[in-house]
Amino acid sequence: MFSNFLIGLREGIEAALIVSILVAYVVKLGQQHLLPRLWAGVGLAIALSVGFASLLAITSNELSERAEQIFAGTTSIAAVALITWMIFWMAKRARFIKGQLQGEVDAALDKGSWALAIIAFVAVIREGLETALFLYAGISSSGGTSEPVIGALLGLLTAVVIGVIIYRGAVSLDLGKLFRWTGFALIIVAAGLLAYAVHEYQEAGLLPGEDNVAFDISSTIPPESWYGSLLKGVFSFRPVTTWLEIIVWWAYAVPVLVLFLKKTKRQAPQKQPLAQQAA
């Protein structure tokens, strides 16, 4: 649940930050009459994201067992790719996002009021589709329980509350530090998802090594225990793990963590409070 809460929180804060910047700038320009169209773009993006999540669930239910394993593994790899791209993109672009969005609003107002709705839609749909894909991968890796959904919803609700508070200027957060720490945590989550994808491919017969077990601690950490479920939900941990899963986990986690650490260290001297981003 925690990993999906973290994903919901991270994606939700990004979307809330974008919407807050757009709304604040439109109000600053005295164009409040355009806000309904902006919210229409946001609403459409949310609706399509929910539809995409439903499509993933329906598609998975209609597949055979082997096809479902391949589908779950493939979507998990896609989720890992998006998580990796997202954390590095935000580490690089967070400091410039306000100016970029305001420039897009200025250009949209020159083209017509509905162009503002398109900007809001495009800005939010990316976060929504990513969240839907992450959520499906999280549900698959945790055994199909409802906990990932609850965790993601709690994360999104928390992000909405934070977004409202930020917009009202009641709090100032260090944006760089926030995304830096969530980025570190998400890299660990992504490594677990990648190992889970390998496991699904092994069960489907696409990858070798299903019988080459590195360790079996199911007697110490039963999968049905609360702590076994917690480890599986947060880290996609399996008490019975193959050597290939371990190799893939470390081959992803170590270099990505090192690269992310180097990038965030270079960005660290330039801090941007979150409240100032939305102002």
Q: Could you say which structural class the secondary elements and strand pairing correspond to?
A: mainly alpha
Unreliable segments (pLDDT under 50, ≥5 consecutive)?
269-275
Question: From N to C, what is the helix and strand string?
Answer: HHHHHHHEHEHH
| Mean pLDDT over the residues | 79
* First-to-last CA distance: 33 Å
Radius of gyration: 20 Å
> How many structural domains are formed by the residues?
1
| Strand residue content | under 5%
Write down how many β-strands occur, each being a DSSP E stretch of 2 or more residues: 2
Give me the number of helical elements.
Answer: 10
Largest sheet: 2 strands, antiparallel
Q: For the largest beta sheet, what order do the strands appear in spatially?
A: 1-2
* Helicity level: over 70%
Outline type? elongated
InterPro entries: FTR1/Fip1/EfeU
Pfam families: FTR1
Membrane topology: Multi-pass membrane protein
GO molecular function, one term: ferrous iron transmembrane transporter activity
